[in-house]
Specification:
Shape: globular
Bound molecules: NADP nicotinamide-adenine-dinucleotide phosphate
Low-confidence stretches: none
Structural class: alpha/beta
Strand content: 25-35%
Distance between the termini: 12 Å
């Protein structure tokens, strides 16, 4: 089968298309014919082996995993031992972040606990946009308990992959949602359902005196004191992104019960919950750019610039 492989850390051009062995599904896995993928920050972090400390697990000198790609959508080709919930031909979507990556390929084996039936109304490209970003939004927003309809929620980075889902998920809970983005994306964030938008190029959303019951910082460019300044009494903030190791450490060391770093772990249960929101018309993937499989390095290079307006996807077949 064809796959994009990388054998050393580096920029997107390090990826090259190669012929590799097709995987076989093990017990508890299904073999998926990949029809679409989305790209995530995890892909370029792992491709570059950055932050450097991540190489302790990724491989000190060279990457241990040769095929990147965490978000896939496709058709079940075969099922491994003990799998009863899926059969050949099922249309599915999955996330492989916690299972060795491998999505940038014609086929991948995915454990059933990170896989769900694809919502019928979504194309494969749209479905591939969902798992990592939407589950991160869901788990970030849910970090301090379910969002209540009476709450005021601030989403920092509301136009990005995670943020575009977070605005819609928070709105589906009935909350009053404010999205922070730059001038060119204000209308986009309004169209996703935000009640209010803040242009970070002219206004500091955390310094305006307005307070929030929940803050989801998908960018990770704000300090813990900044986030606390924006919280109402009893308010809570969850941070899912980071712009530097110092910012990551800052939240880890100075956060606490009110400000927490969240590392998302995709589960089939959360994918099913999202499928429900998608079917109900409450959440829809916001696709920024579509690439062909052969153009994946360009897709990753674009995402790496940090200016995505929703998700970046690629059709594989
Ligand atoms: N914790 C986890 O489990 C997890 C999972 C997925 C992703 N992440 C992390 O979360 C971060 C975001 O991921 P993503 O997929 O949403 O990235 P993305 O799609 O690349 O997000 C880019 C967005 O960030 C916005 N942005 C940039 N600077 C901003 C600022 N100063 N204030 C407000 N918005 C700003 C950009 O809007 P403008 O163009 O308008 O500036 C753009 O729309 C990454 O650091 C990623 O590593 C973490």
């Amino acid at each position: 089968m064809k796959a994009f492989i990388y054998e050393r850390y580096g920029p997107p051009e390090t990826l090259r298309m190669a012929e590799v062995d097709k995987p076989a599904p093990e017990a508890g896995e299904v073999l998926v014919r990949v029809l679409a993928v989305s790209v995530n920050a995890a892909d370029w972090h792992v491709l570059r082996g950055k932050p450097l400390f991540s190489r302790a697990t990724l491989g000190l000198l060279r990457p241990k995993q040769k095929i990147l790609g965490v978000d896939v959508a496709g058709r079940v080709e075969a099922v491994g031992g003990g799998v009863t919930g899926f059969k050949a031909g099922d249309e599915v979507y999955a996330n492989l972040l916690d299972h060795g990556y491998g999505g940038f390929a014609d086929y991948v084996s995915a454990p059933v606990d990170v896989l769900s039936l694809k919502p019928a109304g979504l194309s494969f490209e749209e479905a591939a946009a969902v798992p990592m970003a939407a589950v991160t939004a869901l788990q970030g927003l849910g970090r301090h308990g379910p969002i209540q309809p009476t709450q005021r929620v601030l989403i920092n980075g509301a136009s990005g992959g995670v943020g575009s889902f977070a605005v819609q998920i928070a709105k589906s809970s009935g909350a009053e949602v404010t999205g922070v983005t730059s001038t060119r994306n204000l209308d986009l964030v309004r169209s996703l359902g935000a009640d209010h938008v803040v242009d970070y190029t002219t206004t500091d959303a955390l310094g305006s005196g307005r307070r929030y019951d929940r803050i989801l910082d998908t960018v990770g460019n704000r300090s813990v004191p900044d986030l606390r300044r924006g919280l109402a009494t009893g308010g809570k903030a969850a941070v899912t992104g980071f712009t530097s190791v110092a910012k990551l450490l800052g939240v880890s060391l100075r956060g606490g019960k009110d400000v927490a770093m969240v590392q998302a772990h995709v589960t089939a249960k959360d994918l099913e919950l999202l499928s429900g929101l998608i079917k109900a018309g409450k959440v829809h993937p916001q696709i920024d750019r579509r690439y062909r499989f052969a153009e994946l390095p360009a897709a990753i290079a674009y995402l790496e610039q940090g200016r995505a307006r929703g998700k970046v996807v690629a059709a594989v077949a």
